[in-house]
């Protein structure tokens, strides 16, 4: 083996710090949710503006991910990783010290900007660091578990920090994460030199992709608050379609595209992005409704509701590191992803049976465990396959597409399923209310809300079944136990990232 393809002796220590950075980015999407009521009261944020504490982060993050991925390819992933960490820490410090709503919202937007640089840099570092098939399986098993469980961990951490310290610590805690990860990156992360992209940045692509993704994410956010038929909602969706269509045309013509179409048109990667995005739609909707259900109907505290998700976190870790990582070297990716999404759908079907007085042990526990096992088993090969076989100079943008499908999927899931739940609850009240006094009965109101949650969870189950079918039909990669040549001309540079044998 040539020297430049020898495995990095510090790669397993490097994995710790890459995983820590990924955990910070993923949990920050949910850690603030639990603390939001306290922050709203402290800073005097209006009910109309409170959603922006979440939306400011997701808009900047989702809209700039492709740009961040390409910057990582141009600057080098290690450089982008460190700058992303430092920027994220600074933005978190600013948010934690916020004295008014504008300062908090601005800080959350900045977190999203640096998160969009950090997330694809982390995943692409993993892709170019672990090139042996067995080691790659283990590394992506750890990464997949963190990517899948991070959102639930955020709910737990948010509950602990808010209850025992105050809401500002859900932001300040990122400073400690970032400092440890930066020091670890400097000491242990080594990026192969041959993977750098030396082309100029595609400015028209950056503008069109960022504007199109922001319009899409913002459109779903407005649909949640204003309704699907509102003029501004429809206008944003139309603008998104036009901008993203123009982006696709531009990318097919420019010399050095932001997103080379070969990254998404390759059958297996396209199948991963689509099926993973759909699965995330269902999963994020579940977090939303179960949080409401546990706190508003069952009366759980923020801390207790966060810990209620632990069985799902455990299931994801087992599914990703024990099932996914072990079977990935023996079975084809679609035979892990499709059954994984289907097991998660079965978990959803159980969770859809919730009633006002449901027992946690009889309904929520088995449903959450199956959700975790299924999603963990599917995430592992999905994360690996999304960057497997891509040209080294495209690793950053291919990684960004994984994060983009997750971020856009999460935004769509929250808005779509929340709107469906609200509509189902309204319909239930119309058909069951016999007098104005009914709406003052807490049990009656809870029954209507739980009916809405149940309907939305059934829809999420259907989306997971669709993700399972698409994964089985579209993904035709062989077992990932080879380190063959990547897409390209067969040069040494092309072989830095292993490929899937078709």
TrEMBL record:
<dbReference type="InterPro" id="IPR004638">
    <property type="entry name" value="EmrB-like"/>
</dbReference>
<feature type="transmembrane region" description="Helical">
    <location>
        <begin position="109"/>
        <end position="128"/>
    </location>
</feature>
<keyword id="KW-0813">Transport</keyword>
<feature type="transmembrane region" description="Helical">
    <location>
        <begin position="227"/>
        <end position="250"/>
    </location>
</feature>
<feature type="transmembrane region" description="Helical">
    <location>
        <begin position="336"/>
        <end position="356"/>
    </location>
</feature>
<dbReference type="InterPro" id="IPR011701">
    <property type="entry name" value="MFS"/>
</dbReference>
<dbReference type="InterPro" id="IPR036259">
    <property type="entry name" value="MFS_trans_sf"/>
</dbReference>
<protein>
    <submittedName>
        <fullName>Drug resistance transporter, EmrB/QacA subfamily</fullName>
    </submittedName>
</protein>
<feature type="transmembrane region" description="Helical">
    <location>
        <begin position="167"/>
        <end position="189"/>
    </location>
</feature>
<dbReference type="GO" id="GO:0022857">
    <property type="term" value="F:transmembrane transporter activity"/>
</dbReference>
<feature type="transmembrane region" description="Helical">
    <location>
        <begin position="408"/>
        <end position="430"/>
    </location>
</feature>
<feature type="transmembrane region" description="Helical">
    <location>
        <begin position="271"/>
        <end position="294"/>
    </location>
</feature>
<feature type="transmembrane region" description="Helical">
    <location>
        <begin position="140"/>
        <end position="161"/>
    </location>
</feature>
<feature type="transmembrane region" description="Helical">
    <location>
        <begin position="51"/>
        <end position="68"/>
    </location>
</feature>
<keyword id="KW-0472">Membrane</keyword>
<keyword id="KW-1003">Cell membrane</keyword>
<feature type="transmembrane region" description="Helical">
    <location>
        <begin position="368"/>
        <end position="387"/>
    </location>
</feature>
<dbReference type="GO" id="GO:0005886">
    <property type="term" value="C:plasma membrane"/>
</dbReference>
<dbReference type="GO" id="GO:0046677">
    <property type="term" value="P:response to antibiotic"/>
</dbReference>
<feature type="transmembrane region" description="Helical">
    <location>
        <begin position="201"/>
        <end position="221"/>
    </location>
</feature>
<keyword id="KW-0046">Antibiotic resistance</keyword>
<keyword id="KW-0812">Transmembrane</keyword>
<dbReference type="InterPro" id="IPR005829">
    <property type="entry name" value="Sugar_transporter_CS"/>
</dbReference>
<feature type="transmembrane region" description="Helical">
    <location>
        <begin position="306"/>
        <end position="329"/>
    </location>
</feature>
<feature type="transmembrane region" description="Helical">
    <location>
        <begin position="12"/>
        <end position="36"/>
    </location>
</feature>
<feature type="domain" description="Major facilitator superfamily (MFS) profile">
    <location>
        <begin position="14"/>
        <end position="480"/>
    </location>
</feature>
<feature type="transmembrane region" description="Helical">
    <location>
        <begin position="80"/>
        <end position="103"/>
    </location>
</feature>
<feature type="transmembrane region" description="Helical">
    <location>
        <begin position="450"/>
        <end position="475"/>
    </location>
</feature>
<keyword id="KW-1133">Transmembrane helix</keyword>
<dbReference type="InterPro" id="IPR020846">
    <property type="entry name" value="MFS_dom"/>
</dbReference>
<dbReference type="Pfam" id="PF07690">
    <property type="entry name" value="MFS_1"/>
</dbReference>
